Amino acid sequence: MYKFSVIMPVHNKAATLLDSLACLYNQTFKNFEIIVIDDASTDGSLQILLQEERKGKLRLYHRDKPGPGGYAARNYGAQQATSEWLVFFDADDLLVYDHLSRFANAISEHPSINFFVNAFRKMEGNIVLPRSEFLKNGVLSRQEALAAFARSDFIHMNGACIHRNTFKALGGFPVDRYLRAGDVYFWLKVICSLKMVHYDPTVTSMWLLHNSGVVSNKNNIIQTHPCLDLKREFDVGLNWFEKHYLNAAINRKILSWAVEKKIVGRSVEKDIRSLTLFSMRPRQWMTLITLIIPQPYYGRLRDRVLSG
């Protein structure tokens, strides 16, 4: 039985697919299977994947209709998994050679934990962006993990490893609910549902922002941030401090999304009204003040700040 099932959804990734697959082939830890779900690609991705399948490199499945964010494809891949640990990887990003081995070592050292996270970095073109999270290596309590998420997104799709039973018990990624940020919603849901998680600050994956069509498409941020739904779902079950940090994390995501909306001229009234004010951090109040500025003046202020 394999230790890991690496699940990769693919929708029109012919330009990056072989490079991303090479990152998996070159892993030092070899006890894993690759499950690829072709999400109705039309650019030649399927032909590449069929060649790799014939070589015995991966197991290939097909879906007739692509789903927003690849969430349905990932869930389908999880259903086909034969191992107890699920790892997700996007077909336009990169992994370091010890990505899986670090998960394997952490799992051996902490067999009672069901969710493991390796650090990631963002890249814009050839530029590696600065890290925003500085967390300790090792076990984080639920409260510590929520407090960390209130400061920054320390979990990325490529850097997460979750026990299959936990993934299934939580219902997998949300399908047909969100066009974007359904994964952020799910990671926060995982933290809220578990007493402990494990974090490794070693960077083992690179998120290539210039390949992310989901993030760049501003039509995906029409609604309020998906994380807002967690307020209702975890109204009970968390202590006061955990709720406070959950609300602070939700505030951070709502505000960052509202800034994107404001820049493209969309209303942010619903976003502002959904904030939990007593959980606001000092810098978030400054962001909120700028969001209240009328649109024409906001644009001028932003241009002036960006111009130096």
Observed structural traits:
Spore Coat Polysaccharide Biosynthesis Protein SpsA, Chain A, alpha/beta, 42% helix
Structure description:
Residues 5-131 form the Glycosyltransferase 2-like domain. GO terms for molecular function: transferase activity. It holds the Pfam family Glycos_transf_2. This is Glycosyltransferase family 2 protein. This protein has 308 residues and is α/β, with parallel strands linked by helices. It folds into 2 domains: 4-216, Alpha-Beta Complex (Spore Coat Polysaccharide Biosynthesis Protein SpsA, Chain A), CATH 3.90.550.10; 221-306, no CATH class. It has helices spanning 17-25, 45-54, 71-80, 99-109, 142-151, 164-169, 182-193, 213-216, 229-233, 240-263, 269-273, 282-292, 295-306; strands at residues 4-10, 32-39, 59-63, 85-88, 94-95, 115-124, 127-128, 138-141, 160-163, 196-208. Strands 1, 2, 3, 4, 5, 6, 7, 8, 9 and 10 form a 10-stranded mixed beta sheet that branches. The radius of gyration is 20 Å and the shape is globular.
